[in-house]
Amino acid sequence: MKPVYVAGAAVHPFGKHPELNAAELGYRAVHSLLETTGITPDTVDTGFAGSSYGGSLLAQRVLQRVGISGQPAFTVENACASGASAIHLGWQAVASGAADAVIAFGAENLSSFGGGTLPLTTNDIEIEQGMVMPAAYAMRAQRYLHDFGATVDDLTAVSVKNRTNGALNERAHFQHEVTAQDVANSRPVADPLRLLHCCPNSDGAAAVLLCSQEVAEQLHTPRVRIRASVVRSGTFHTQYRDMTWPDITERTAKAAYAMAGLGPADLDLVELHDAFSIAELLHSEALGLAERGTAHRAVRDGDFDRHGRIAVNPSGGLMSRGHPVGATGATQICEAYWQLTGQAGSLQVPGASVALTHVTGGGIFGVDNGACSVHILTAD
Amino acid sequence: MTLPQTQPAAHQIGAHWTHQDGEHATLTITLCHACSGRWFPPRDTCSTCASSDVENITSHTRGSVYASSVVRIAPRGFQAPYVLAYVDISGVRLLAHSPSSDRALAPGTPVELTVARIADTPEGAVTSYVVTALDDQHTTTGEQ
Ligand SMILES: [Zn+2]
C-alpha cells in the first residue's frame, strides 16, 4: 500500500443552522478546504461524502459546486460513522494507487427534524418497541455502574471535562463550561442520563484532503500521515452479551493498532465517540486507554485531561462540538490534523505526535453498533 | 370484495412469536442445531452459521433483568415516561417494556412475561410482550 497523507482540513462550525441544508454545509467546508490547500478541482481524482440524512447524491451536489465535476463521486451512509467511512474509502483509493488526491467530507443538518431524539431507521424490532439511542446508552450506563461501582457523578465528570475542553473550541456547538451542579439540574432524558450527559443534535460539515506523497509535496500545506484506517461492522447475535464491553470498538482498534504498528501507550490524544458520557468510559476501555472497569477513575484522576496522561476529546468531543451524525467522524480527523500540525491553538495538546480517532454508528438490533471506524494519524 | 368496516384494531408487536396463556406469556425462540446459536425473534436460517437446521422452542415465562432505564423523552407514538429493560430469558436477550413499574429495574431483578399495552397511536393501542418484576421492592403499582 502507498502512504496516505492528510494535507488539509476544514470545518463549518457546528451548531444550529436550520437555514443551511446538508449540501450547503458541505459546500462551505469543501470550499474552505480548496482555499486553504490551494488544490485545483482538476487535480482531485475522486470524492466521498458521508451523511445519514443528507439525501441522494450529496457528494455530487457539493463537489460540483466547486468545480469537481465529471470525476467519480460517492455518498456513503453508515450512521454516525458515515464521515469516517467516507474518509476510509478515500484512504483506500489513495493507498491502492487508484487516486492521488481525494476529497472526503461529512455533512449533516439535523435541525430539519426538530427537537427530541433522532428518528432511527425503521424495520428494526427494538425501534418499533420505542428504543432510542439515549435509552440504549442509559441501560449500558446502569449496568456499568452496577458492575464496576461507578456512580452518576462519574458520568457527570466526563461531561464537565469535555465541556471544559469545548469551551475553547470555536468550531464547537457549545463553547461554555458546565458544572457538576448544572449537569445534575438538567432535564432527565433516560435514567440515569440527564440532558448534559448527552451530546446535542447539531448541524455542520467537515472536509479533508487525502493524497499521495507526490501530491503532498506539491502542496504548501502541513501534512500528517494516516497510519491506520479501519472500519468494522457489529457482530450480530441475540444471546447474552456484555453491554459494558463494546467489542466492535475493541475489534476495530486492534486492527488499527496492528496496521499502524502502534499501541495505546503511543497515543498523545484521542478523539472518541462520547455521544453520551457513559460512551467515553466504555470506548476508552475498549480502546485500551484504561484498564477494564477503571475509566471512570481515570477521568476523575485527570488522566484524560488535555495535559493528562492521554488527552481524550481535547476538542470537547461530541458533548461540546455536537453530533451532526455524518460529519462527526470527519471533524475528528480535522481536529487531529490541527493537533499534529501544531495548529490547534488553545486546544493544543503539548507535543502531540500520534492521534487516534474513533466513531461508532447506529442503533441496530442485535449488535453493539452498526459500524465503527478507527483512524491513527502521526505527525510524519 | 368489500372489506368489513371495523374499529381500528390494536397492533401487537411480535404477535407471531408471542403466546398468551391466561396471565402469562411465552415466546418462540429459534435454536440452531448446527452451532447451538439461539435467536429471538425466531428465524428460518441461523444468522451465525447460515444453517437451516433450526428448531423453534418455547421460552420460559420468567427471566431476569440485564439492564433497564426509564425513557423520559419519547419518540413519536410513545408517551413518556416508560420503562424499558433488556431481559435474559431462555438463552436470549430481548428488549421489553415494564408498564407496571415507574422506575428502572435493577440488574438481576426476576421478571415474568406478560402482554400489555406499550403505546397509543392515532390508529389504536400498540401491545407487545412486556415484563413484570416479581420482586416487589423494585415495582410500584398504578399508571405507568
Ligand atoms: Zn448456527
Give a brief description.
The complex is a heterodimer of chains A (380) and B (144). Chain A has helices at residues 22-37, 58-63, 82-95, 125-128, 133-148, 152-166, 180-185, 213-218, 247-260, 277-286, 295-300, 317-321, 325-340, and strands spanning 4-15, 46-50, 73-76, 101-109, 188-190, 193-194, 203-211, 224-233, 269-271, 311-312, 354-361, 371-378.
What does this structure look like?
- The complex is a heterodimer of chains A (380) and B (144).
- Chain A is 35% helix and 20% strand.
- Chain A has 13 helices and twelve strands.
- In chain A, the strands form two sheets. Chain A has a ten-stranded mixed beta sheet, with helices on both faces.
- The longest helix of chain A has 16 residues, at 22-37.
- With 144 residues, chain B is mainly beta.
- Chain B has strands spanning 11-13, 18-21, 24-32, 38-39, 54-58, 62-71, 82-89, 92-97, 110-121, 124-133.
- Chain B has a six-stranded mixed beta sheet, with no helix packed on it. In chain B, strands 2, 3, 4 and 5 form a four-stranded antiparallel beta sheet that branches.
- Residues 1-7 and 137-144 of chain B have low confidence and may be disordered.
- The A-B interface holds A 116-117, 119-120, 125-126, 128-132, 134-135, 138-140, 142-143, 146, 187-193, 236-241, 243, 366 and B 13-14, 37-41, 47-48, 66-78, 82, 84-86, 88, 91-97, 103-104, 106-107, 118-119, 128.
- Zinc ion is lined by residues 32, 34-35, 37, 46, 48-49, 51 of chain B.
